[in-house]
Amino acid sequence: MTSTEQPLDGIAAQVAAVFAAGMDHVPFGQWLGLEISSIEDDRVTMRFEMRDEFVGNSEINVLHGGIISAALDTVGGLAALLGVLSRAAERSEDPPSPWLSTIDMRTDYLRPGSGREFAAAAFPLRVGRRSVVTRMELHNESGDLIAVGTGTYSVP
Question: Apex CA 3: angle with CA 45 and CA 9, to 5°?
Fold first, then answer.
């Protein structure tokens, strides 16, 4: 689902369509409830709200680390797809399959994931023929940086 106010066009629309189609087949992704909030230039931003099921420490009501990593992996994958599609368009090449796979991912947890709403953003650092490396960040509604990540995704 896309919650952007402006209609998406071109490559951004392709990325949003792939995400929507993927969510039809990924129950875990549906359960997370991530929504695309923007796709601009080479950056993808998604949002989600805190839910009771996401709590990792009920005494202080913060996100579970697995939810944080899953959100970063999802937005990183979309940024990788955006990079691959942009590269193909720049080179007038046929785009590869949109179904990228995570090869490796690192998450650095910087502070407890407290908040009501969260934004996960990512952009590609390097787009190669066989893999894409992305950088991801997770912020709460106050703008606090909760976690950062680096992901590597295979290009089919």
Answer: 80
Read off the DSSP letter of residue 2. Answer: B
151 and 120 Cβ atoms separated by less than 8 Å: no
Instruction: Provide the 3-class DSSP secondary structure of residue 79.
Output: helix
Multiple choice CATH, 10-154, 3.30.70.260, 3.30.70.100, 3.10.129.10, 3.40.50.10420: 3.10.129.10
Q: What is the pTM of this model?
A: 0.90
- 1-27 tens-digit pLDDT: 344 444 557 888 889 888 888 777 778
**Domain boundaries of the chain, sorted by first residue:** 10-154
